[in-house]
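Components:
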Amino acid sequence: MSKRLSVYLLAVGALVVAPSVASAQAQLSPGGDVPYRLVGPPGADFSGVWQPRYHEDQPDRIPGPELTDYTGLPINESARQYANSWDPSRITLPEEQCRVHVSPYIYRGPTNLRVWEEKDPKTQDLIAIKHYHSTYEQTRTIYMDGRPHPGPNAAHTWMGFSTGRYDGDMLVVETTHLKKGWVRRNGVPMSDRATMTEYYVRNGDVMTHIVVLIDPVYLTEPLVKSQEFVRSQRELPAGTWLWVCDPVLEIATREPGEVPAYLPGEHPFRDEFARRHAIPEIAIRGGAETMYPEFQEVVKKAPIPAPLPPPQRGASRVGGPGQQQGR
Amino acid sequence: MVNTQTTSRRLGSLSVAAAVAAGALLAIGSGAVAQQNQNFDAVQIDALRVRDNIYMLVGAGGNTTLHFGSDGVMVVDTQFAPLSTKIINAIRAITTAPIRYVVNTHMHGDHIGGNEALSKAGRFRAGGNVVGDLGAAATATAVVIAHENVLKRLSAEPAAGQTQVPFAAWPTETFITSKREFLFNGEAVQIIHEPNAHTDGDSVVFFRKSDVVSAGDLFTTVMYPYIDAANGGTIDGYVKALNAITDITVASNVNEGGTLVIPGHGRLSDEQDVVEYRNMATIVRDRIKEYVKRGMTLDQVKAAKPTLDFDPRYGADTGFWTTAMFIETIYKQMVEANPPAAKPAAPTRNRRRGGAE
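Structure:
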């Protein structure tokens, strides 16, 4: 582990632990020396309906990322080429239309989240914590009974296989067996070999959710993201929980078997993000080095790309050498 | 040549990659020697329940599919010969029904190695003239089904230095049509031929009631598509086969589950996993096709890194099927399918006397 990474994870750890410590302190005995619980085993109860707040990374999460914006992502050159070749038209393929956001990503999007506990009726032991996402109607099970993860031959799913434990009042969840998905939904991939550690911390009606994603295929360092949820005081209308997806043929003229993609290096909009926002090219392409404070000095010295010309009536968005890949 | 010491150690730890490598070693022809050098003692068979009466048996070599019921047992692919006892024991731990059918998805040694032992461990049903003509031999073994081209390849004169697969391991029933189908254990079983893909004798087996596809090496989760060109494989056929599999499969409304797919190598999958693999194969094929169209040489194509985005997931620098071999094979087939336009002939004068140019 690099020194920079160690420092970074330490900082993340502090972020995670701080509210947990505060919460634990509140549960010390009157003498202040013996932790005690009023009811049940250690661990906060996260049950209820939670709705996300989008103050953090809002442009990335709600309108969605712009094409070729890989800022802040510790991706390798393979992930970059994958994203630079990704044609958004890919998701018009019937077999891609109902593609679910994997669990490392789904919490960042618009989603209502219902949390409840599954307990053994005879012992009241906590067997699992369940999460239901309105987005894609995904139900996720976080096993709390100590069972092992499946072997390497088991199927992978959008939500993966998750086991959890309480560290004080903080819920720590480990997830494996994920399907291939997004790190960012502009084509930046997450492989099916990725694993995730999550930290759930509750402070009253606010829940902090931190994701540490490790992907040996596409990331050179762990990717750490956080988001906040606020507990809803009332149940939501049924329709807000539903997400029905029926794939249809959207492009009638497409040849059977065609997979929309750009040739490497020929993404027609590859300069658009940098030029629109006057960001040096070295900053938008991602990479672990772009995540750290010292990169600011590098960016200051990098050339700013020319701004985009004003759009002209009737003109296409961007001209350029980009070419749709052969069919 | 693979370092067999290393391979054996990996097999001991049930490394899928090593199993694939070992299997493919047999596949590409040095089979007998390679197999003799393998240590299968430490290999354990992992039986994974796929549906009520279908299991995926993972050991070394290609995955085995087990389907069973009141009519008996069907086994799709039989891994390496030395693993036969372990495969049979794994089957017997699940069901005591007699083995009636062995199906081969293609002709590679890591998928047919156990044919002889498994067919001998089973027996077929026959009567009337068949028994009258053949006697006990008519029912003494299970039937081994494969596409006709599997039998042709296995029965052909082996290349110099290679050993022929024993006669007893050859398919006993072949088909030359696009598919063979029958009802077994109340299940419509379709053995569907996919021409010139991984080899020229590939089949996928679709268990229609259970909604499970056994894909053979037309789909794996551990490596780039292995195009065995020497045995009739082509990248275009491979991509077509992947699309054919996605035509069979039906996902749930969130692209997960539904039809389950047992790959030739690797983990249990569903349609979305096949779609990802199809996307990769199509994109790489189309890139190289376009580069060929532009007149690029093989070295130029390699320098353009047409597989860079997939290499950390499927690529290999060593072994029987490297990334370089994958690129070279596609390049060669794209050049053959799309030969560079002949140089335009030099303008010739109109030789007609007095004619104008």
